């Protein structure tokens, strides 16, 4: 693989970052994951806007212009011959040359890393046909989940809890209400109505969430942005999750209770279809 590190395209074995990098020592950095379909970037502008928001929240300088970010993404697609897959982008506060809690001076250059992950069959993921089984776990993450930081230890632990329970993923619950999935936003469907938690510091402001809610409204579905409990989800007609790397995925079982008939429902199938169709049209 050819990767990008601080202005250079390198073989992955040649790309080296300092042990004093703030990303390594403090999880002091942010990231984005953009899907590639047919060699094109899905919702690239959405990711670049959120990247800026995350960097602003942590007072990390954005080292590249939007045009430069697009160029680096495109170079990596071409150099690695990616048809379907993902591009991972990470910006950390950089390498101050020692360990210190205080932020280094603002003129320290951030560390920029991008790499590709080829995923043939990404759009035709068989899980979209079978649906996901999930468990609920307590949300013990920090209070700024709206910032897309590289601090992913608890989400990783959540995925492992799901794996040990023999299911696919987990939803976080705080004060009896679902916040989001370990790496996705969470939704339920009742009749023609899509229900998902409102935006706040409690959840990541999903790029896919924004697009799906727009498409749902355009397709004459009702959209209600409010919190819901696991009990309400278990009694819903359908449930699903969204993320930039899985798009729209049905959830068919929560904590052992089947949702509806226990198979993916028509509203979620339609949303996935619309999402992929519209995003492919707009891909860069
Ligand atoms: N919530 C969390 C905690 C996530 O990690 C992700 C995926 N990065 C999402 C939601 C979905 O966001 P997006 O649609 O922008 O990928």
Automatic annotation (TrEMBL):
Checking Pfam families in the record gives: Aminotran_4
From the UniProt record, list the reaction(s) this protein catalyses: L-valine + 2-oxoglutarate = 3-methyl-2-oxobutanoate + L-glutamate; L-isoleucine + 2-oxoglutarate = (S)-3-methyl-2-oxopentanoate + L-glutamate; L-leucine + 2-oxoglutarate = 4-methyl-2-oxopentanoate + L-glutamate
Q: Which UniProt keywords apply?
A: Amino-acid biosynthesis, Aminotransferase, Branched-chain amino acid biosynthesis, Pyridoxal phosphate, Transferase
Q: Which GO MF terms does the UniProt record name? A: D-alanine-2-oxoglutarate aminotransferase activity
Q: Where do transmembrane segments lie in this chain?
A: none
Return the EC number: 2.6.1.42
Q: Which SUPFAM superfamilies match?
A: D-aminoacid aminotransferase-like PLP-dependent enzymes
What does the record give as cofactor?
A: pyridoxal 5'-phosphate
Q: In which pathway does it act?
A: Amino-acid biosynthesis; L-valine biosynthesis; L-valine from pyruvate: step 4/4; Amino-acid biosynthesis; L-isoleucine biosynthesis; L-isoleucine from 2-oxobutanoate: step 4/4; Amino-acid biosynthesis; L-leucine biosynthesis; L-leucine from 3-methyl-2-oxobutanoate: step 4/4
Function according to Swiss-Prot or TrEMBL: Acts on leucine, isoleucine and valine.
Listed PANTHER family:
AMINO-ACID AMINOTRANSFERASE (PTHR42743), AMINODEOXYCHORISMATE LYASE (PTHR42743:SF11)
What's this protein's family per the entry? Belongs to the class-IV pyridoxal-phosphate-dependent aminotransferase family.
Protein's recorded name? Probable branched-chain-amino-acid aminotransferase
Native source species: Pseudogemmobacter lacusdianii
């Amino acid at each position: 693989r050819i990767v990008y590190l601080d202005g250079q395209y390198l073989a992955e074995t040649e790309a080296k970052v300092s042990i004093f990098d703030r990303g390594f020592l403090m999880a002091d950095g942010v990231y984005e994951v953009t899907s590639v379909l047919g060699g094109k970037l899905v919702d690239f502008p959405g990711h670049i806007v959120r990247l800026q928001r995350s960097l602003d929240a942590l007072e990390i300088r954005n080292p590249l212009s939007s045009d430069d970010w697009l160029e680096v993404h495109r170079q990596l697609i071409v150099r690695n011959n990616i048809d379907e897959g993902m591009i991972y982008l990470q910006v950390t506060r950089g390498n101050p040359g020692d360990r210190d809690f205080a932020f280094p001076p603002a003129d320290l250059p951030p560390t920029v890393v991008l790499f590709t992950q080829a995923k043939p069959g990404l759009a035709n993921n068989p899980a979209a046909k079978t649906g996901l089984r999930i468990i609920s776990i307590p949300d013990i993450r920090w209070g700024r989940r709206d910032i897309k930081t590289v601090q992913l230890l608890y989400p990783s632990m959540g995925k492992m809890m799901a794996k040990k329970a023999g299911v696919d993923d987990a939803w976080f619950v705080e004060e009896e209400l679902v916040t989001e999935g370990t790496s996705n936003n969470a939704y339920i469907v009742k009749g023609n109505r899509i229900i998902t938690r409102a935006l706040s510091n409690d959840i990541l402001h999903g790029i896919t969430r924004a697009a799906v809610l727009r498409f749902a409204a355009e397709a004459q579905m009702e959209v209600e942005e409010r919190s819901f409990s696991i009990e309400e989800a278990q009694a819903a007609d359908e449930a699903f999750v969204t993320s930039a790397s899985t798009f729209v995925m049905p959830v068919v079982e929560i904590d052992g209770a089947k949702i509806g008939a226990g198979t993916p429902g028509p509203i979620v199938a339609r949303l996935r279809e619309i999402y992929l169709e519209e995003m492919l049209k707009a891909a860069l």
